[in-house]
Write a structure and sequence with these properties.
The chain has about 375 residues and is α+β, with helices and mostly antiparallel strands. The chain has one domain (about 10-365): Creatine Kinase, Chain A, domain 2. Helices cover about 50% and strands about 15% of the residues. The chain is built from 14 helices and 13 strands. The protein has helices at about 30-40, 65-85, 110-115, 120, 140-150, 150-160, 175-180, 195-205, 240-265, 275-285, 305-320, 325-335, 340-350, 355-365; strands at about 10-20, 45, 50-55, 85-90, 130-135, 165, 170, 185, 220, 220-225, 230-235, 290-295, 300. Strands 1, 2, 3, 4, 5, 10 and 11 form a 7-stranded antiparallel sheet that branches. A hairpin with a 5-residue loop joins strand 10 and strand 11 (about 230-235).
């Protein structure tokens, strides 16, 4: 996937491979991947753990194209998994299997992570959704990164989908986010003065042995190490295609809205990193079921109002892409029906069995 045109989109999703009988994680990627590639080519890849598989869409210019790609690739992976005796589930964490259910994928880059980071790497049994947005240039990439950060928490809150960990309800709406923060280069970066300032930091991290390559920077938002894109990594993998389309639409519109502000000469917001950390943590902890932090106004507000403020900010960009009605409708559905985390909890409450949560996830992932 290489986003070629300004504000085009590419989406990556990670899924768990599941034993359909026990509903536990199944380290079956070596069986599933060749079959999936027969159906979808290089759009399917390995991930860090042997119980995971990843898809990456082609470059998309519209949300209609994003939806079509996600439907195509999910169907290919579902079919490949079933032919290999497994199923897939789109969830930030597995409801009951723990890290001992998997080994690192036998690929040198992943094995090196295991050597360098030890238990942190072994426990990264989490699945995320990454959205790439094509950028006009390097300076614009940094400008948009600096301006987009205050709006990451409501986007995360809309897409939380990982309440359980090793058989327990964690109390978090996105426990994946808490697990991910164990990486030393995770979180949200401070503002950069320029592209050169960003490059200087990357060189310093490499020179000091803090990272071995730029791809080891695991921020919630980062310039891509491969493409001329800004990569948003703030959300759990979404349970449904609708939710992923919602996230992609919001993120693309956020990037465009920030660019328009820069072109107008609107001063970028000044936000302390400690407040950004508090805001994204609050979104991970409560999702839409508690107050979020407005880091620009320095106050708490109900999640629904914070989401409405986000829609107001990105509204002109959504209009430009002709996507306001679609994205607003998807956001409204999430506010009405609940996030992935809320629906997982409701599924567990109906029968009290984590296996039932897995069954629900598998059905929703496949669009059943």
């Amino acid at each position: 996937m290489a986003v070629k045109t300004t504000f085009d989109i590419g989406v990556e999703e990670e899924y768990f491979l599941i034993d359909p009988v026990t509903r536990a994680l199944s380290p079956a990627v070596d069986r599933v991947l060749p079959r999936a590639r027969d159906l979808a080519g290089d759009s399917v890849a390995t991930e860090m753990q042997q119980v995971q598989i990843e898809i990456g869409t082609d470059v998309c210019g519209t949300l209609r194209e994003v939806r079509a790609e996600l439907v195509r690739l999910r169907a290919a992976v579902v079919s490949a998994a079933e032919s290999a005796g497994t199923v897939i589930a789109a969830s930030g964490t597995h409801p009951f299997s723990d890290w001992r259910a998997s080994d690192l994928t036998q690929k040198e880059s992943y094995l090196r992570l295991g050597r360098d980071y030890g238990q942190i790497a072994r426990e990264q049994l989490v699945c995320g959704c990454h959205v790439h947005v094509g950028m006009p240039g390097r300076d614009e990439t940094i400008e948009i990164l600096n301006r987009a950060k205050p709006w990451l928490s409501p986007i995360r809150a809309l897409a939380v989908n990982s309440p359980f960990w090793a058989g327990s309800d964690t109390g978090y709406a996105s426990y994946r986010s808490a697990v991910w923060l164990r990486w030393p280069m995770a979180g949200t970066p401070d503002a950069f003065a320029s592209w050169e300032d960003y490059e200087d930091l990357v060189r310093t991290l490499e020179d000091t042995g803090s990272i071995d390559e730029p791809a080891r920077i695991y921020w919630d938002i980062r310039p891509s190490a491969k493409f001329q894109t800004l990569e948003f990594r703030v959300t759990d993998v979404c349970m449904t295609v609708d939710e992923t389309v919602m996230v992609a639409g919001l993120i693309r519109a956020l990037a465009r809205a920030c660019h328009l502000d820069a072109l107008r000469g609107t001063p970028p917001p000044s936000v302390r990193p400690e407040l950004m950390q508090a805001a994204t943590w609050r979104a991970s902890r409560y999702g839409l079921d508690g107050d979020l932090v407005d880091v620009i106004e320095r106050r708490s507000m109900p999640a629904g109002k914070m989401v409405a403020a986000l829609l107001d900010f990105v509204g002109p960009a959504l209009d430009e892409f002709g996507e306001r009605d679609e994205v607003a409708s998807l956001v409204e559905a999430t506010l009405r029906d609940g996030t992935g985390a809320a629906r997982q909890r409701r599924s567990f409450a109906r029968a009290g069995r984590p296996e039932d949560v897995v069954d629900y996830l598998v059905a929703q992932t496949a669009g059943a």
